[in-house]
Amino acid sequence: MSLLISVHLPKTAGASLRLALEEHFGDRLLRDYEDRPLHVSTVSRNTRALRQCLTNSWGRSELQKFACIHGHFMPLKYRLLPVPYKKQYVTWMRDPVERLASHYAYWLRDYQQDSIGKLQRRVIEERWSLERFCLGPELKNMYSKFIWGFPLSRFHFIGITEFYDTDMEYFSDKFLGVNLPARKENVNPTREKAFYVEDMSLRREIEMYHADDMLIYRRALHLRQNRLAEQA
């Protein structure tokens, strides 16, 4: 047996994956959406993750009934968690420019005043433009923020959202031993264009500003190519 630890990076098909995991694991799935890493400062985020990591290193008996943990958390949180079987870390990534623009569109249409986080509230109430959202310090290099203290090489699988159907087929067969449907959840119902950011000048500016995340994404694409080569 193994404990599947699934990191849901925002707007990378994580909600769709959650539905599939709920169907497969049922009450053996732990949904961990308490941390909200993007809504706190870097110091608070990293300090909390380190504290959680050390706390979990002593073991948590209540986790023994779960076969999968999925949600918005830093993988460092469970890095030292002792379990009587293998831990497998998985996540999904998406082109950082499109991920940012999708995140912006989602926050604009999913405004629930009583339950949103501080950062989303600022975006809405201060009427941020797409450029302000993508080129501001608050969301700079989000992948880097989430996987701080956790090398990319420790992930057993990184799916690519642009290849969701085929990567989901591989993931479900390899890690779950079943053929789960490629569900589509939280897809923008008003989206008409193939790409959110069609202005090449703006795209290049965003790519340069999020250079660390672009590097991580390209490494993830390279890992995918290696996986496909091994399958061939």
Explain how this protein is built.
By secondary structure, this protein is of the alpha/beta class. The protein has a single domain, classed as Rossmann fold, CATH 3.40.50.300. The chain has 9 helices and 5 strands. The chain has helices spanning 14-25, 42-56, 96-109, 118-125, 130-134, 142-146, 164-176, 200-209, 211-231; strands at 2-7, 29-31, 68-71, 86-93, 157-160. A 5-stranded parallel sheet has the order 2-3-1-4-5. Helix 8 (200-209) crosses helix 9 (211-231). It is globular. The mean pLDDT is 90.
Number of self-contained structural domains: 1
Q: Write the CATH fold name.
A: Rossmann fold
Say how many strands there are. Answer: 5
C-alpha end-to-end distance: 27 Å
- Strand composition percent: 5-15%
Give the overall shape, derived from the CA principal axes.
Answer: globular
Helical content class: 40-55%
CATH class: Alpha Beta
Order of helices and strands: EHEHEEHHHHEHHH
The major sheet is characterized as: 5 strands, parallel
Average pLDDT figure: 90
* The CATH superfamily title: P-loop containing nucleotide triphosphate hydrolases
Task: Give keywords.
232 residues, alpha/beta, Rossmann fold, 9 helices, 5 strands, 44% helix, globular
Topology, element by element:
Layout: E1 2-7, H1 14-25, E2 29-31, H2 42-56, E3 68-71, E4 86-93, H3 96-109, H4 118-125, H5 130-134, H6 142-146, E5 157-160, H7 164-176, H8 200-209, H9 211-231
Parallel strand pairs: 1-3, 1-4, 2-3, 4-5
